[in-house]
Automatic annotation (TrEMBL), chains A, B:
Keyword Coiled coil in record: yes
Occurrences of domain Prephenate/arogenate dehydrogenase (ranges): 1-279
EC number: 1.3.1.12
Coiled-coil spans in chain: 232-259
GO annotation (BP), single: tyrosine biosynthetic process
Stored Gene3D superfamilies: 6-phosphogluconate dehydrogenase C-terminal like domain (1.10.3660.10), NAD(P)-binding Rossmann-like Domain (3.40.50.720)
Keyword Cytoplasm belongs to the record: no
Keywords tagged on the record: Coiled coil, Oxidoreductase
Name used for this protein in its record: Prephenate dehydrogenase
NCBIfam families to which the protein is assigned, alphabetical: PRK08507.1
Ranges that cross the membrane: none
Organism, as annotated: Rhinopithecimicrobium faecis
SUPFAM superfamilies found in the cross-reference section: 6-phosphogluconate dehydrogenase C-terminal domain-like (SSF48179), NAD(P)-binding Rossmann-fold domains (SSF51735)
Top-level enzyme category: oxidoreductase
Length: 279, 279
């Protein structure tokens, strides 16, 4: 069986590496708007040949979508028009708008919305990693609307990636990812901007940057080409979480401005409850 | 030579472990308001005996202050009153108020303000680690006001901790730490509060928590007993940074609310410049 990876970056490359390593597929076809990335992917070796979408549909049983979410949104209806018995697995980070877009498509059953909760702050083909997905969660969204054979094939890929699985509705998925993933990125972007703003006048500021700073701001290395579309596709949920986050920061600010240290202590102690969730 | 550790937690314990390992000292005296922590420190073995401040001053050449910064602030004038030729090393995270408090003290020269830029999100004697300080930065603040022999002794401890060194004024130190350390903690506390707030109604939210979320929220495990005093002692700088951070988050919010994706992309791309600072 041949597979196609549409978007040969961190996620697509990491999937391809694992599917090749486990002999899941014969050939991997790479599709990407960026010719440089295709050449890099060929050189690294996780794709076997460059292809157009039409060529890939003719040769492959599985098309895995790992392009930025707005690109997936734009091309999915056309892609489904051309599908017969192939399986299209969408591994993007937002689902609600996309599912709505194709809910009445005659080939809806060949499409599966699957979000692997894994990644790094790096992007592009060179960022692809073996074992990126191992032990992480694959979230299937609105999975009951997918044909059984298509779901089974997608799930056998999830098994090869050694992932755990979870099932959610589209709204639930997009809201939860806003809370546990998208807001972390916004926070890091804002923190980086805050510190870079100050650094203009105070060049030595980074002598002091310790490991706490690094871990909090690490995600600010993430690609704007990937993240702008995510925020766009998940706009309402992200705005809601961002408003809550600004509110919580403002509460901390008010406690400190008012020299209400009892309240500040209480808020910090309350935030410590996150211990129970983290390892 | 005997040394005393006032505050037998993460920092004090980690210092003691290293000074024992390198045979820098004979006995380590532990001083702490918390009897449980003293017993734990004895059991772990990084202190040799429990002591009062008076006993420690009689028996030790070096007193290392690793208590919360408000405790250091409260007891420092009394401590300096009793000092003769001992060396008092303050390893707290804020310096400006404390230095102002003792600037005219006759024994000012026996005191050295040193801030090791190292730590973890854990606290207490069990959190103490060998090699916590290795390769990290020790910042000396207003070091020219310390007697030369006292500075040399403090610096020989810094060498045993295998740290690099940097010199700053008090204002510069407190402002820079607000930017690269204190704000990271506030951000994490607020992020934890944001997510915990939502979780009340949505129990499954943490199924999705990936590594990005974990690294951003990790600092929210930090102790309120340690951090409330830091924010109190560095209140003005922290308020300034927090205002800038809320402003940057608000800019991101405005761009998204206005569906101005060009601006959102520009802000994210600008934040990527943090790459140059991080490894």
């Amino acid at each position: 069986m041949n597979i196609a990876i549409l978007g040969v970056g961190l996620i697509g490359g990491s999937v391809a590496i694992q599917l090749k390593d486990t002999q899941f597929c014969d050939l991997v076809y790479g599709i990407d708007r960026n010719e440089d990335n295709l050449n890099k992917a060929l050189k690294i070796g996780f794709i076997d040949k460059k292809a157009t979408l039409t060529e890939a549909l003719a040769a492959c049983k599985v098309i895995i979508l790992t392009a930025p979410v707005d690109a997936i949104y734009s091309m999915l209806p056309d892609l489904l028009d051309q599908v017969t018995d192939q399986v299209v697995i969408d591994m993007g980070s937002t689902k609600q708008n996309i599912l709505k877009l194709i809910e009445d498509h005659p080939n809806r059953g060949r499409y599966i919305a699957a979000h692997p909760m894994a990644g790094t702050e790096y992007s592009g083909p060179e960022a692809a990693l073996k074992d990126l997905f191992k032990g992480k969660m694959m979230v299937y969204v609105a999975a009951t609307q997918t044909d059984e054979d298509a779901f089974d094939l997608a799930d056998s890929i999830t098994e090869r990636l050694e992932m755990r699985t979870s099932f959610m509705g589209a709204h639930e998925h997009d809201m939860h990812t806003a809370y546990v993933s998208h807001i972390s990125h916004l926070t890091s972007f804002a923190l980086a901007l805050t510190v870079l703003e100050k650094e203009k006048s105070q060049g030595r500021i980074f002598e002091l940057a310790g490991s706490g700073f690094e871990s909090t701001v690490r995600l600010a290395k993430s690609s704007p080409d990937m993240w702008t579309p995510i925020f766009k596709q998940n706009r309402e949920n992200v705005l809601e979480v961002l408003e809550e986050h600004i509110k919580q920061l403002t509460n901390l600010h008010t406690a400190l401005a008012d020299e209400n240290y009892e309240e500040l202590h209480r808020l910090i102690k309350k935030s410590n409850k996150i211990k129970r969730i983290l390892k």
